[in-house]
Amino acid sequence: MLGEIIVKILFIGGSGNISLSSSQRLLEQGHELWLLNRSGQCAELVGAHYIKADINHEAQVKSQLQSHEWDVVVNWIAFTKSDVARDVALFTSKTKQYVFISSASCYQNPGPTPIITENTPLANPFWQYSRDKIAAEEFLLAAYQQTDFPVTIVRPSHTYSRVIPLTIGGWTEYTAVARMKAGKPIVVQGDGNALWTLTHADDFAVGFCGLLGNPLTLGEDYHITSDLFLSWNEIYQQTAAAVGVEAKIVHVTSDKICALNSDYTGTLLGDKSVTAIFDNSKIRSIVPQFNPKITYAEGIQRVISWFEADRARQIINPKTDAFIDLLIAKA
What we know:
Blueprint: E1 8-12, H1 19-28, E2 32-37, E3 49-52, H2 58-65, E4 72-75, H3 81-91, E5 98-101, E6 115-116, H4 128-147, E7 151-156, E8 159-160, H5 175-181, E9 186-189, E10 195-196, E11 199-200, H6 201-211, E12 221-224, E13 230-231, H7 232-242, E14 249-252, H8 254-260, H9 265-272, E15 277-278, H10 281-286, H11 296-308, H12 318-330
Parallel strand pairs: 1-2, 1-4, 2-3, 4-5, 5-7, 6-15, 7-12, 8-11, 9-14
Antiparallel strand pairs: 10-13
Helix pairs in contact: 1-6, 3-4, 7-11
């Protein structure tokens, strides 16, 4: 739908790990993209317009948005019911479509079928983050049903572009990769055989941008993921291969990891300790060109190249490093 006309789009956020690729794609397609963020800039998004504001300061934002109307508003940094309630107040009658970025961790897993679809129930007893997203979805769908607030819900699942998508010592840290390069063992949860879906943000952007400006998506929910999946053992070995080594894996149960550090309870027991494979039929039905192509071996090589282009990005967290050593000692 976006290819037909120039659309005026507001991204709240828009320069992060998932969203940057979508911002770049929209600018390449010639759309009028605005970003609302606290810095009022992003050097990588040439041609974008900016509103310098903090979305959490509602009065300030309302004043700065007063003269604008939008074809599409996307909030990349809304997490709770109160966040989206604020947005409904701000954007009612001001946008033709509001897109909420939820999470595939909201799905009940294991669910009624091995393959996750949009009909899989939403429930996560282990992770407050996911329950907050579910509550936000419920609020927005009620607003759609009661007042025609034009919401579309999108659920990414472990999407990466400038993060290392490993369970312990990854994401914005370089800790696990540094250990691999030094020949030190790393920890993989469980037996490492659970299957997991990783999606590069460039692939995600194709499906995501195809939803924008399409009235058929209002009141609907979509997950957007790769069709490729790997075991966690394969994910760690392919990450190691990207830096020219072989991973020395020590397996530790998720229960033991969480008992020693409860911060992992949500991300492990509520997410990465179980298999997650997705049926993307629904997103393809509305965006036929969605066809994820980037393998993890290719994607992680891009990520490693980005980290190694700047030493400041190669953050080694001594607490994480010590925790990995502790897990190995108790394995």
